[in-house]
Amino acid sequence: MPFRKGVCQLLALNKFSIQQWMKTFDAMIFDADGVLWRFDNPVDGAPETFNALRAMGKRAFICTNHSAWSRQQLFDKAVRLGIIVEKNEIISSAWALAHYLKERGFKRKVYIIGGQGIVDELKDVGIESIPIKERPLEGASLRDQVLNMPMDPDVGAVAVGIDQYFDVVKLTKACCYLRNPKVIFLATNQDRALAVNSDLFIPGAGSMVSAVQAIANRPPFTCGKPNALMCLHLMREGIIKPERTLMVGDTLYTDILFGYNCGFQTLLVGSGNTTLDDVSKAQKSKDPMMYRQIPDLFLPSISDLLKFLPSKNR
């Protein structure tokens, strides 16, 4: 029988119980898309809640699998939306990938399928990358494009993230590099899709990673959530204590599993990719490891916490 783990709906508790629960953590790790903002707009009340929790003395970090933007761009967006946060309190999967290579002493070039965020983060740690602005040659067959495709012998890694210009030429080139077993295969993240609204989804980085993996015939090392690598530096340096940290996310297989892998409490919010129906399906799953994706707590939106916070902190 699969292990059944319960999920507490916070709004079913009284105000005193919720306030007592808030004393059980000192730090909060927030996902971004679907939790704090949705594309260019804030989730209603989310910036105010984030700021109020900081005013209570909670440490607050943003940890996102969004790799198309650099940490500087994510910081600028957070500030524009009214979120009080420092740049070094934002962790992205592109940042995690760059620092993973830096810690390995990587000295070669990286071929990128992805956005400018990966390029910028690699540059910040002194790692060179292959330009990502390649486009198919108009009118040329795939065979001709492959035969005339420039290959750099100094490439030592292939990094794959979300790429709005993903095509068969990039896929072919990445897999040509990965035929060499010494070339490292990295993924920023494996989010399968991003919700535009309740009826519309766009492909996430995971769809592009899966395409490369299928042809390269080997799995990548994934640097973003649910890999605990993303917050390892915070734990190593004693900035956060896992048993006193809350992970707030909107996706079971990235955010909630990440929280489990790190030893955090987990809070799922319904303002993004996942509903309570999805949690119920996970609870009924025959997969014996699915319990790791069941959140400890649920709220329709992080802003629902605001009314339980001291008025002086709002």
From TrEMBL:
<protein>
    <submittedName>
        <fullName>Glycerol-3-phosphate phosphatase</fullName>
    </submittedName>
</protein>
<dbReference type="Pfam" id="PF13242">
    <property type="entry name" value="Hydrolase_like"/>
</dbReference>
<keyword id="KW-0378">Hydrolase</keyword>
<dbReference type="InterPro" id="IPR006349">
    <property type="entry name" value="PGP_euk"/>
</dbReference>
<comment type="similarity">
    <text>Belongs to the HAD-like hydrolase superfamily.</text>
</comment>
<dbReference type="Pfam" id="PF13344">
    <property type="entry name" value="Hydrolase_6"/>
</dbReference>
<dbReference type="InterPro" id="IPR006357">
    <property type="entry name" value="HAD-SF_hydro_IIA"/>
</dbReference>
<dbReference type="InterPro" id="IPR023214">
    <property type="entry name" value="HAD_sf"/>
</dbReference>
<dbReference type="InterPro" id="IPR036412">
    <property type="entry name" value="HAD-like_sf"/>
</dbReference>
